[in-house]
Amino acid sequence: MPSPHGGVLRAFDCGAPHPGAPVVVWHAGSPHTGEPLEPLAVAARARGIRLVTLARPGYGGSTPRPGRDVASVAADAAAIADALGIDRFAVIGYSGGGPHALGCAALLRDRVTAAAVLASPAPFGGDDWFAGMHGPGALRAAAVSREERMRFAETDEFDPAQFVEGDFAALRGEWGAVGRDAGRAESAGPGGLVDDDVALTRAWGFDLADVRVPVLLVQGELDRMIPRAHAVRLVAGLPDARLWMRLDDGHVAVVEVVPEVLDWLVERTGSPPRSAASPADAPDASDAGDASGS
């Protein structure tokens, strides 16, 4: 579909499982393709949720937009909702998608019912922001300039020490979809990831105090990529926030609580969840409708 900023914006609509189904918009981590992850789509369908996912600019066929800030995603999400005939929706964001979910909550107050973020960075705050990160080189480069971050991308390699055993266990299971999706995104080039990192290390374009809806924060105590201090800062800055600390989880393992997070969001949409369907009744992510028009 046309992007409100120019170019193309790609989104996926998994469809309404029943009339009046609550809607949840997923903001994926960095990098991503924008396609619905199978375990996410299954969990949403089992709860009677209409799941919508989007590819941020530079990912999955969405037109790159260097220099974008976090706040710009709100116009993207609103345009997608308008195109799909959706009025109100909840948002959920994982890792680099967390700030973007909060941006929608802050700037689309009349449309967003609740927000949940998992392993999300807090607003950039100088050198202390990097404390506790294992291998923060990419983000440090982004804080210097986009050009420096692009140069870093030429030599950047995955460091397995960023993950704990629980993360690898999650990646060996159904949530290995996160790693596979990131791998497909990386094969398309670093542009989207670079622009995400630059946006995270600049002013976001809104204040946490602007987020007036209930927010659920999920944080792994053992997270080596986005340490617990970020969750503490988010709790302190958000007017209505609840924190779920996952004591044995790292950066990836927290996604295993997504089904419970979806339950929490649905409870705050004013629409009760449907009786859970069996996994066999739920569509695979490959069955999702593509709202991109491409």
Model description:
About 35% of the residues lie in helices and about 15% in strands. The protein is α/β, with parallel strands linked by helices and about 290 residues long. Helix 4 packs antiparallel against helix 5.
Features:
294 residues; eight-stranded mixed sheet
Q: Helical amount among residues, as a percent range? A: 25-40%
Our count of helices gives: 10
State the strand order across the main sheet: 7-6-5-4-2-3-1-8
Can you tell me the overall shape?
A: globular
State the end-to-end CA separation: 8 Å
Strand content: 5-15%
**Cα radius of gyration in angstroms:** 17 Å
- The parts where pLDDT drops under 50 for at least 5 residues are 271-294
Q: Major sheet, described briefly?
A: 8 strands, mixed
Order of helices and strands: EEHEHEHEHHHHHEHEHE
* Structure class: alpha/beta
The count of β-strands is 8
Average residue-wise pLDDT: 91
